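Reopening: homocysteine desulfhydrase still failing for me.
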Amino acid sequence: MTTHESSSAAAAATPVVVPAAPVTDWADFSFETRQVHAGEYPDRNSGLRVPPIALSAGYVFDSFDDQIDRFAGRALWHGGGLTRGDGAEPEVVNELLPGEPAPIYSRQGNPTNAVAEERLASLEGGTAAVAVSSGQAAISSALFAIAQHGDHIVSTASIYGGTRILFGRSFKRFGIEVDYVWDADDDAEWDRAIRPNTKAIYTETIPNPRNDVTDLRRIAAVAARHHLPLIVDNTVGTPALIRPIEHGASIVVHSTTKFLTGHGAAVGGAIVDGGTFDWDAAERAGRSFPLVTAAPRPGLASLLDRFGPVAYARAVREAVVNDIGPSLSPFNGFLLHQGMETLSLRMERHVASSLQIAAWLEEQPEVDTVDYAGLPSHPLFDIAKRDYAGRTGSVFGVTVRGGIDGARAFVNGLRVFSRMTGIGDTRSMVIHPLSSTHASFTPEVSERLGITPGLLRLSVGLESADDLIRDLRSALDRV
Ligand SMILES: Cc1ncc(COP(=O)(O)O)c(C=O)c1O
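Support: Ran it again with your exact input. Result attached.
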């Protein structure tokens, strides 16, 4: 027998085993699996395992008609154009959520960002997501898709200072008014604030900086009663701790700069469409959301009629982000989808350290108060336990004795905590809100928000909690 004959005999004996098709729909998998895989696409040309950074401003259309389909928003993105190299038709191996249109130009969509978008939509339990250049861009884009000059928004009072500034300055200049509800448990206060031209209710899950957790179901009931979408900033909570859509939110926004990207390296933001808001019913009740429900031109059906549960995401992408242009760099999109792979692990550690540190701080004689809702002594502990499983993130307030002088001495004594703006990093950080994020507020507003001279905001990172406690202790020695 020749060598040639023996090898072909062996080949004939080898059973043909067709490898199982890769998973392309991760919906039935657990959170931990989805944070690693959702949105990824296997690139059969190169075998790349990690979705690459697609640094391309534009995209080649397969044909004249593909261009028409893409501009009509009909073509779905298909995993980076997986042509098999043998001239065969591109194979659709990863039909993304229906909210992911095939890209035309990177201002409107990008394959790297699409991985992050699908992953985040999956983790939040939404139908689609749109990645943008910052958290502020996410909040603006989310609201510009439903509110315009002459419209009105009602927000809870305890929100990130930058959002309050955005509402009070730019939104005001654009003719969109924002009113605040101070007691979110008071239905009558909501009813007084909401007007015929109100377009949305806005809140945060775990407000920055005071950790005064929100009873989302209660606010969602108000929103439902008034046929309004509820927009929730889940930056501090993250979907690893709470998923607002499960509690009645219609739309979720993020500063992905924080925990989602996770390492303090890239500014970004995202809007998630819950796919749950009944735009038609709201219109019948007298609200109007023309970007979603009206025909953009005679003869063309509305986004709602064409795209159903992802119509709002389409409005954000096509009618706001593509027009105004706060697109996410694919480089930052890469850091975002990679950061999300370890989200739940990092959040576990952030929360465990925060609980340990908050409980320890509460015992220190130099500390007046600790604003961490996961502590049994906190007035919102019951909500923290019921809706957040007691895990209220790692951004919280601590008030040291001695007012601003005590705060100054404490901050200057820290050596491991960085004095800086920012939260949700691997590194621990401290800031004095009254003289930074809230510096432009009137004394009355600051006082009402509990932003006192001695209040400091901590963002607990991933260092050892014992090392952080040592650092805090030596700083408290100076107070
Ligand atoms: C809760 C919250 N929302 C939005 C933002 C704004 O995000 P960005 O800085 O990415 O624009 C921040 C920033 O700190 C924040 O804490």
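Confidence is low (pLDDT under 50) at residues 79-99. If you still see a failure, please send the error message rather than a screenshot.
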